[in-house]
């Protein structure tokens, strides 16, 4: 065994190589690797990497690192071999182990830039996060392009499912993430704006960011494939720093992105189709100059689900289309002066062989004195339309480009909307990924049919959304808050009922509403608020216990932190009185508690639960300081480090500086009708604040939801159920695919999205009911065009691809019909002997009996078949069978009452069935 030591700017890396002969069983468990590599990036710390390849391990150091002297470290050799043996015996997955070690190497100094791998809290999970951040750089000049590379961990394939940007447009003009086989430099960072570039070979764009765009989360079952086997073992982040004046204070920049990744194979692979113009010139004084791009599409079907526009300051609108048989179908339309995020496509649209993909960028040169060309500086212009799509994994193409200006005759038929500028106000600049339509008036949330499966719930007291894109529900099972639940001293009077026996915490698939995981049995008495932290732990409040809990989110119900004293109300730093909600600062980990029904304060704790400080209500613009009257819900504003409070009975929202508790602003609207029950903030930091009000005896305002601009406090939209009315909306949460409202009184969860779905819930941009049909299309047996990364001429493609995908799909359907015909034929052949036997029996009976007996025969025969039908239909109930054999139980509980101002009123009760989720139900395949 030996290792090499390499010196880098500011770091040392030692690469070990270990030769070991593995048994066949171990090879199977590790993917067939015969050699292992150990990377040491810090003295005393090292990461074990198993090679998935057969035969000799590739010495990547010769390709990627400068040569250095060979040094022998027998002590390290012994330690490494011991660790390898231990890992073999424990069968520890590499992903968890390597990620944990890398994360421990990150400096605790807040001045340092985070970088490396962060594992999921559950080290057996296949999920992890990857930080790619600039290592504290200061650009040398304006329009400086800097790059940093990071290898994808291990030789295994990984899938990127989420992009979280860490940048500000005041400093960073835009960011691009590339996947490549080999970066252009081995330096910690390098200037990649010239000939050096980002990648040494061909690169694939995976993500783009600009103008304070929010994060981008991919649809479920979709991911960008990266890793050694995907031919993209490296990720390179390119950052364009615009104006050097942003660095007049000589600060060092740590901008970058966090990638949420998984080793779990995804059924669909994401890719980027980039349409760009490179030869457009914008004359000075011209009111309108168009840049057009169009290419014929000659590959396997793609399914766009998001789009992004990019120009510089002269761009007014960028629009993309699919053209099929002369018909133009909109893919996306947006002003490039808005946050340059990936916005959802306007409708379900696919692109198939023979279609044309086209885009137009509309510029104006009205205020210019010189011509403007396409170029790389901020004084130049760009015309880019990005399409983020997914394909079946068998035919996945990670990146395609189109730079053809297209025929002028084609663009004579482009829809008129492509020539209409989108006006942008300062308020709209902050309205993020939800506002993807052309005009503010088009921004409207509408209810969709959800859940598609039955959710048997108690009073829905709290909602949250975790980093895995699942909805988390906190409900009260068969307990209710009645007039006799508390005495005058606020002590809970129904302890004799015991804790709630049902699972009070449900992790729900947001697509169809199926319960994926359930926990929280025999723990709570009267649940109220819930939130999740960055590690997907739950922070929960119980008004009966007067406590706040941090509970592990892996379903094991492990209490990590408990604040307050059980069943003992109080007003000091160690007690609560009916606490309502919790908010968590993802940056510092600090915890904020709204307390509550008896107290009128906000308390701040450290991540470990140490009391830090507290404060009450702030003074409004009129200077009057009105105390909180039930601070009921909290929303943390990460991009401003502020905490907003829904002061329920005062009908207002107050916001404070999270660090000090200093009052910032108050939002109070007549439309609230005197009550604000719950609030939530868009996690992308785009400035959208959501709220729900409640019934007030002093106001006639309707009960509904509100969408507001945090900066201007203006109401952008209101929403409510279509057929029913909100009875008592108790909590609200915003997600990547819509807004959810939990109604306490009706025990229901309502889902609202921007675009009304006429066929229920969508999955990855496609209706669930159409998913089977889609998969037939996606899995068409068409000959792939290997390594195709750009759109090519249709005639050239025809030579490589003899049959269009549509023809192959037709063949597959015919083959499917043939496969279906065989079981039908077998069934008919089996039924023929049975019919002969029955006919023979009837004939014998007819011969032996007289006419009166014959008249009763059909009834007898009917009775036979009736018994057969009865046995088939009612004799075996699979639902009851699994309930009785899988440990499921059904338990009825009373119709639950509604929560009032401080107590809850009683209603007439009625029985309803509730399926207790004691095991994880199987997830439906995609």
Automatic annotation (TrEMBL):
Q: Which SUPFAM superfamilies does the annotation name?
A: NHL repeat (SSF101898), PHM/PNGase F (SSF49742)
Domain Copper type II ascorbate-dependent monooxygenase C-terminal: residue ranges: 269-414
Disulfide-bonded cysteines = 113-254, 147-192, 180-199, 295-402, 361-383
| Binding-site residues for Cu(2+), renumbered to this chain | 173-174, 240, 310, 312, 382
Which parts are the NHL repeats? 568-608, 627-659
Q: How does it sit in the membrane?
A: Single-pass membrane protein
**Keyword set for this entry?**
Copper, Cytoplasmic vesicle, Disulfide bond, Glycoprotein, Lyase, Membrane, Metal-binding, Monooxygenase, Multifunctional enzyme, Oxidoreductase, Repeat, Signal, Transmembrane, Transmembrane helix, Zinc
Q: What is catalysed by this protein?
A: a [peptide]-C-terminal (2S)-2-hydroxyglycine = a [peptide]-C-terminal amide + glyoxylate; a [peptide]-C-terminal glycine + 2 L-ascorbate + O2 = a [peptide]-C-terminal (2S)-2-hydroxyglycine + 2 monodehydro-L-ascorbate radical + H2O
Q: Which GO terms describe its molecular function?
A: copper ion binding; peptidylamidoglycolate lyase activity; peptidylglycine monooxygenase activity
Q: How is the cofactor bound?
A: Binds 2 Cu(2+) ions per subunit.
**The keyword Isomerase is annotated on this UniProt entry:** no
Which superkingdom heads the taxonomic lineage of this protein's source? Eukaryota
Region ranges (Disordered): 795-817, 893-926
Needs which cofactor?
Answer: Zn(2+); Cu(2+)
Listed GO CC annotations: extracellular region; transport vesicle membrane
Q: Which family does it belong to?
A: In the N-terminal section; belongs to the copper type II ascorbate-dependent monooxygenase family. In the C-terminal section; belongs to the peptidyl-alpha-hydroxyglycine alpha-amidating lyase family.
**What is the protein name stated in its UniProt record?**
Peptidylglycine alpha-amidating monooxygenase
The source organism is Takifugu rubripes
Gene name linked to the record: pam
């Amino acid at each position: 065994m030996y290792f090499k030591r390499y010196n880098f700017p500011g770091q040392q890396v030692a690469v070990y190589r270990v030769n070991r002969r593995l048994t066949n069983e171990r090879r199977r468990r590790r993917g067939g690797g015969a050699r292992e590599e150990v990377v040491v990036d810090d003295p005393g710390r090292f990461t074990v990497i198993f090679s998935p390849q057969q035969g000799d391990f590739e010495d990547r150091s010769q390709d990627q690192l400068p040569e250095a002297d060979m040094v022998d470290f027998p002590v390290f050799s012994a330690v490494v071999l011991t660790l390898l043996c231990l890992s073999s015996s424990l069968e520890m997955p590499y992903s968890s182990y390597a990620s944990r070690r890398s994360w421990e190497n990150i400096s605790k100094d807040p001045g340092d830039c985070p970088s490396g791998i962060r594992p999921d809290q559950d080290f057996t999970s296949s999920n992890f996060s990857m930080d790619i951040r600039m290592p504290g750089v200061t650009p040398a000049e304006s329009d400086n392009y800097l790059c940093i590379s990071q290898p994808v961990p291990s030789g295994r394939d990984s899938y990127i499912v989420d992009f979280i940007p860490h940048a500000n447009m005041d400093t960073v003009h835009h960011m691009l993430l590339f996947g490549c086989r080999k970066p252009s430099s081995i330096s910690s960072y390098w200037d990649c704006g010239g000939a050096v570039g980002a990648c040494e070979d061909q690169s694939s764009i995976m993500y783009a960011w600009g103008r304070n765009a929010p994060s981008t989360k991919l649809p479920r079952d979709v991911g960008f494939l990266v890793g050694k086997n995907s031919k993209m073992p490296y990720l390179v982040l390119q950052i364009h720093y615009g104006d050097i004046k942003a660095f007049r204070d000589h600060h060092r920049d740590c901008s970058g992105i966090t990638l949420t990744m998984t080793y779990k194979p995804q059924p669909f692979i994401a890719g980027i189709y980039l349409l760009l113009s490179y030869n457009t010139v914008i004359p000075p004084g011209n009111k309108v100059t168009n840049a057009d791009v169009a290419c014929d599409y000659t590959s396997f079907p793609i399914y766009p689900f998001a789009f992004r526009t990019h120009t510089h300051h002269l761009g007014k609108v960028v629009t993309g289309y699919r053209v099929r048989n002369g018909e133009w179908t909109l893919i996306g339309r947006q002003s490039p002066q808005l946050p340059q995020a990936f916005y959802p496509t306007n409708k379900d649209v696919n692109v198939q062989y023979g279609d044309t993909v086209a885009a137009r960028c509309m510029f104006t040169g009205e205020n210019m004195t010189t011509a403007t060309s396409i170029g790389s500086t901020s004084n130049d212009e760009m015309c880019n339309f990005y399409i983020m799509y997914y394909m079946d994994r068998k035919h996945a193409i990670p990146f395609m480009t189109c730079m053809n200006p297209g025929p002028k005759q084609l663009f004579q038929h482009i829809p008129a909307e492509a020539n209409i500028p989108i006006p942008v106000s300062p308020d709209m600049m902050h309205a993020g990924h939800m506002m993807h339509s052309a005009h503010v008036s088009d921004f409207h949330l509408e209810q969709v049919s959800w859940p598609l499966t039955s959710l048997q719930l108690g009073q829905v007291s709290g909602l949250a959304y975790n980093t895995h894109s699942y909805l988390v529900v906190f409900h009260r099972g068969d307990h209710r808050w009645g007039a006799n639940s508390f005495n005058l001293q606020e002590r809970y009077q129904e302890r004799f009922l015991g804790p709630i026996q049902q699972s009070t915490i449900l992790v729900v698939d947001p697509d169809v509403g199926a319960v994926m995981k359930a926990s929280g049995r025999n723990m709570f008495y009267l649940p109220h608020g819930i939130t999740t932290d960055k590690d997907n732990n739950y922070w929960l409040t119980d008004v009966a216990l007067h406590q706040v809990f941090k509970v592990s989110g892996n379903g094991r119900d492990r209490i990590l932190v408990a604040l307050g004293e059980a069943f003992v109300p109080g007003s000091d730093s160690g007690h609560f009185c009916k606490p309502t909600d919790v908010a968590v600062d993802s940056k510092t980990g600090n915890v904020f508690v709204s307390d509550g029904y008896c107290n009128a304060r906000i308390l701040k704790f450290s991540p470990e639960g140490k009391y830090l400080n507290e404060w009450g209500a702030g003074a409004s613009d009129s200077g009057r300081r009105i105390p909180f009257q039930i601070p009921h819900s909290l929303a943390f504003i990460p991009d401003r480090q502020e905490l907003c409070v829904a002061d329920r009975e005062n009908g207002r929202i107050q916001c404070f500086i999270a660090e000090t508790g200093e009052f910032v602003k108050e939002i109070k609207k007549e439309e609230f009708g005197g009550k604000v029950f719950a609030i939530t903030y868009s996690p992308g930091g785009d400035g959208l604040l959501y709220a729900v009000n409640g019934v007030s005896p002093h106001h006639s305002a309707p009960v509904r939801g509100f969408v507001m601009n945090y900066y201007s406090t203006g109401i952008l939209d209101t929403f409510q159920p279509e057929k029913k009315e909100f009875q008592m909306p108790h909590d609200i949460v915003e997600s990547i695919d819509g807004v959810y409202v939990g109604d306490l009184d009706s025990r229901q969860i309502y889902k609202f999205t921007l675009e009304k779905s006429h066929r229920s819930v969508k999955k990855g941009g496609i209706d669930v009911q159409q998913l089977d049909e889609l998969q037939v299309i996606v899995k068409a047996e068409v000959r792939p065009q290997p390594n195709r990364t750009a759109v090519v001429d249709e005639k050239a493609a025809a030579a490589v691809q003899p049959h269009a995908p549509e023809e192959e799909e037709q063949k597959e359907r015919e083959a499917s019909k043939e496969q279906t015909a065989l079981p039908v034929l077998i069934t008919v052949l089996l039924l023929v002997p049975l019919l002969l036997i029955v006919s023979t029996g009837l004939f014998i009976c007819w011969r032996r009996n007289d006419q009166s007996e014959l008249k009763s025969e059909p009834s007898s025969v009917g009775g036979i078949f009736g018994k057969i039908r009865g046995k088939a239909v009612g004799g075996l109930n699979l639902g009851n069978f699994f309930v009785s054999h899988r440990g499921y139980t059904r338990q009825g509980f009373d119709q639950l009452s509604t929560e009032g101002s401080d107590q809850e009123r009683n209603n007439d009760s009625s029985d309803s069935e509730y399926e207790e989720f004691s095991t994880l139900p199987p997830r439906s395949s995609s």
